[in-house]
Amino acid sequence: MEDRPPLPFAAFRSDDVVAAVEIALLPYAAKAAQCTACVLAETRTNVVFGSGSARSGIVFIGEAPGANEDAQGLPFVGRSGSFSIVCWPTQASRGPMSTSAMS
Predict the structure, then answer these.
(1) Is the pLDDT of residue 97 over 70?
(2) Is 13 part of any domain?
(3) Which residues lie closer than 8 Å to 88 by C-beta, 6 or more apart?
(4) Which of these, 27, 33, 28, lies nearest to 46 by C-alpha position?
(5) Range of the domain at 68
(6) Nearest to 48 by CA among 25, 71, 27
(7) What mean pLDDT value characterizes the chain?
(8) Does residue 4 fall inside a structural domain?
């Protein structure tokens, strides 16, 4: 079996595409760090912009960050992260993914 993600995620394998996505996100991360448009800015310690690889081809979006996320500046490290791990086990924990799982 070839070591590549199933389509449509194969495009995210390209180092050029990954670099372009990471560069494109930088201004948004900087803008989020300076944002005071909502009440979260009044009490936050860190902006929780995101983490992970731009190569993944999937994004999880949460609501307002909890205390653990705010303290670490990383998403899904508190109770919501525990829940998402149960609901969305990592590829490594499931073993090889069949193409039928993507349909």
Answers:
(1) no
(2) yes
(3) 60
(4) 33
(5) 9-102
(6) 71
(7) 74
(8) no
SS in 3 state form for 54-80? CCCCCCCCCCCCCHHHHHHCCCCCCHH
CA distances from 69 to 59, 63, 76 (A): 17, 11, 6
Residue 41 and residue 46: Cα distance in Å, rounded? 9
**Is 0.85 surpassed by the pTM of this model?**
no
pLDDT band, very low/low/confident/very high, at 13 (cuts 50, 70, 90)? low
What average pLDDT does the segment 93-98 reach?
43
> Per residue, what are the HEC states of 83-95?
HHHHHCCCHHHHC
- Residue 1 counted as domain residue: no
Q: 24: how many CB neighbours lie within 10 A of its CB?
A: 10
**In the numeric block, which tokens belong to residue 93?**
């924990």
Who has greater pLDDT, 25 or 95? 25
Cα–Cα distance measured from residue 70 to residue 42, given in angstroms and rounded to the nearest whole number: 12
Ramachandran category for residue 22: left, alpha or beta (phi over 0 → left; psi -120 to 50 → alpha): alpha
